[in-house]
Structure formats: C-alpha cells, structure tokens
Amino acid sequence: MKALLIILGLGIGRIKKITEKKEKLVWAHQIMNELVERASTYKYDYNGRTPQIFKDGGGTEVPTSAPLTDDPDKSLSITMNSGKDQKKKDPNRLDGTDKRDTPGYYGKRETPLLIAAKMGIAEMVEKILYTFPVAIQDLDSNKKNVVLLAVENRQADVYKLLLKGSYLKESVLRQVDDQGNSALHLASMFGDHQPWLIPGAALQMQWEIKWYRFVKHSMPPQFFVHYNKRGENPSEIFSRTHEKLVKNGSKWLIKTSESCSLVAALIATVAFATSATVPGGANKETGVPILGGEPAFVAFSISSLIALCFSVTALVFFLAILTSRCQEKDFHRDLPRKLLLGLTSLFASIASMLVSFCAAHFFLLKDKLKSATFPIYAVTCLPVTFFAFAQLTLYGDLIRAILTKVPQRSYKVFPH
Fold first, then answer.
1. What is the Cα–Cα distance from 82 to 78, expressed in whole angstroms?
2. Where in the chain are all domains bearing CATH 1.25.40.20?
3. Distance (Å, rounded) from C-alpha 306 to C-alpha 5?
4. If you ran DSSP here, which 8-state letter would residue 67 be given?
5. pLDDT in tens, 229-286
6. What is the CA radius of gyration of the chain?
7. 41-66 tens-digit pLDDT
8. Domain 111-241, what fold?
9. How does DSSP assign 227-294, residue by residue?
10. CA distance 163 to 5
11. 297-305: which pairs have CB atoms within 8 A and are 24 or more residues apart?
C-alpha cells in the first residue's frame, strides 16, 4: 500500500517522515560518537594517584582508595585510616567484603554500555567496546554484565554482536548474577511483557523456544551453571514461567483449527458433489461428456478435483492440531507448520471451488451474455478475496515465524 501511494504521488507525507527519521538517525549517530570520544567515565586509566569516585546510595561521593604521596609510609597510613572509616559507613561493604572490589561494579548506577545493551542499541554497544574494550567487565547492581542484560531483555542484535566480537572473553560468558542465574537461566525466563514482534500466544511461544535454543547453542555447554541459588536449572525455569503461555497458545490453536476445519469440511462436501457432476450431461451411447471439448469444461473438471483434494488435506491438518498434545516442544516446529499447511490448503481449496463454480455456471448463460460473465465472476470472487486479505497478516506472521532463526524484538510496543 505504501509503495502504491508513492507511485501515485500520494505518499509525499510518508517520504517526508522517512527523511526526518533518517536525519534524526544520522544526528544521533554523530552525537553518540562525540559522547563516547569525550567520555571520562570509560577511560579506565587509574594509575594509583587519582582515585576513582563512586557514589553510594545516598549520593555521597566515596573514594575507592586514598591518593598516594611521595612518602610511602604516609601513603600507607592514609590508606589504612581511610579503609577503617569506610568500613563503618560504606553501604557497599557487606559481610566483610567490599562489592566495589568486583571489576566494573558501579553500585546502583548503570553504565552507558549496560543501558545500551538493555535498550538494544547495538551501534552504541559496538562503539563503546571498540573505544574502551575493558568496558566489557561492567556490572550493574545485580552483578549482570552486558551479555546477561542482552539475553534477559531479548536483545538479539546486541547478543549477536557480542558473539561476533573479539572482545568477548570466557569470563564474560561464565558470569552469573547475584541470584546465580547464567545467560541460559535468563533466556528461559518469561515475564509479563511480550517483546517479540509477532502476534498470538502460539507464535510467541515458538519464538521463546527459538530464543532459548539460540542462546543454548551459542554458548559452550561447560560454561552453564546448571542450578541457581533457588536450585532450579534452565529447563525447569522455562517450563514454570511459560506454563500460562502454553495454555493460551493451545486455546488459540484449538479455536482457530475448529473454525477452519468447519470451513474445510463444507468445502469438501461441495467439492465432492460437484466433482461427480458432468455439466451438459454425457452421450448415452458412448458415455463421453457432450461438452468435453470446451475449455470451460476442462477448467471445471480440474478445479473441482483440486478443491476436493486441498479441502480434505486442510481438514486432515486441522484435525491433527486438534488431536495434538500441545506440549512445549510442539510449538517449536510441529504445530506452526501444521497450521501453515492447513491454511495454505484451505486457501487453495476456496480458490479452486470458485473457479469450478464459475466454469460450470459459464455453460448456463446464453451466447449474447458470455461477454458480461467475466466482470460478474470477478465481483463474485470479491468476498473470498477480502477474506484472504484479512487472513494474509496471520499467514505472513506464520511464514516469518517459521523461517526466522533468531527472533527479533519489537520496538514499536516497547520503544527506547
């Protein structure tokens, strides 16, 4: 529709919006480059003389170490006294351990790299890591690094970028959060939000399985933590958090299959009756159809047979969905493929039935009205055409969900 509007000269407003978005994208890219180049937070060049300053929960600046002086004894005394004072009032110190000793820890403050990973801005993640490779060690308050945040928020572009980058070390892949969850644990969790750019609970479940398996196969098995602090492994978390989604997907599939199987059964009944009918009758002596040489008769015979075959095929696929157990693994390939093949067969049977109807009706008109039959048949096919276009969105979503290897997160529902 957009392409047609542009060709007809009616899409000037859309072209202007695209131009404005392109300009904003270029400006944002330029601003990002300037911010990264001028950033002082990511210099990571502490030489022991100028301490790094962190802010505690109350906003008070707390130095991580005392500045060194020319006198080693004096410097050591300052450092020891500073450490004693911090033990009394530093909220970062828990159970005798200092959380700031963890490389890249920034308290409750999140670094730009972690924010960009959560928001899915792959360009910013790439630029920061290219300029400051040591930023890969950054952690948030829950001890989640850039890999864990990208996996948890379903940011496929960021995660694929990290897998391709040379700065990704084994220690980053081994990282677990404060609850003992690895990347596979976070990939198996499902919250109330629906980040995937796909409608329907069944297709949502399919993309959840694809995301879980993509993360599982992209990381070495020996890096996985099989159990977190709650004693759960990733497969148990996946089953527990996706239980409601499986039920909703099963209900949607059953409801859709029941409606489509009813239509397929009606078409099969009509197609069976028409396929055994010979327009114009047959020769009593030879049994050969009288109108057998007409092109319309050939079209009627072939289309009625195709309508019967495809309607029965669609009915079989929909009945297979209705009798399925609808388990988690079935949503990966089995159920979506059956639904796609069933809808394809149903559309083909509807189109073939219309062709056979028009071909048989062609013989009932007189010769002087044959020139006006084609516009009439075209108008007759409009209701079915509208139905096909109404279901085209679901059909396209099914094809995209099946062919897509790595699901893409939706930014229309959850903007930056």
1. 6
2. 111-241
3. 37
4. P
5. 888 988 899 999 999 989 999 999 999 899 889 989 998 988 888 777 766 655 566 6
6. 32
7. 544 554 444 444 544 444 444 444 33
8. 1.25.40
9. --TTS--HHHHHHHHTHHHHHHHHHHHHHHHHHHHHHHHHHHHHHHHHHT--TT-B-TTT--BTTTTS
10. 41
11. 297/359, 297/363, 299/355, 299/356, 299/359, 300/274, 300/356, 300/359, 300/360, 301/275, 303/352, 303/353, 303/355, 303/356, 303/359, 304/271, 304/274, 304/275, 304/352, 304/353, 304/356, 305/275
Name the segment(s) of the chain with CATH classification 1.20.140. 247-403
Report CA torsion sign: 163, 168, 171, 176.
negative
CA dist 134 and 185 (Å) reads 25
Q: How far apart are CA 355 and CA 278, in angstroms?
A: 15
- Of 111 and 370, which is predicted with more confidence? 111
- Residue 295 structure tokens: 């092109």
DSSP string, 120-142: T-HHHHHHHHHH-GGGGG-B-TT
Closest of 154, 33, 50 to residue 407, by C-alpha: 154
pLDDT in tens, 326-378: 888 889 889 999 999 999 999 888 888 888 887 777 776 656 566 666 777 77
Provide the terminal-to-terminal Cα distance of the chain, rounded to the nearest Å.
Answer: 27
The single-letter code of the amino acid at 87 is K
Fold of 247-403: Butyryl-CoA Dehydrogenase, subunit A; domain 3 (1.20.140)
pTM (2 d.p.)? 0.72
- CA–CA separation, 28 vs 35, rounded Å? 10
Between the CA of residue 90 and those of 46, 54, 56, 75, what are the distances in Å? 21, 11, 8, 21
Proportion of the chain above pLDDT 70, given as a percent: 69
Strand 93-94 versus strand 97-98 pairing type: antiparallel
Mean pLDDT over 9-36 rounds to 82
Q: What's the rounded Cα separation, in Å, for the pair 168 and 311?
A: 53
Q: For residues 248 and 333, what is the distance between their CA atoms, to the nearest angstrom?
A: 17
Is residue 305 within 8 A of residue 270, CB to CB? The reply is no
Distance between CA atoms of residues 246 and 231, nearest Å: 23
Token pair recorded at residue 178? 């404060």
Instruction: Output the pLDDT for position 69.
Output: 40
Tokens 């499986």 belong to residue: 246
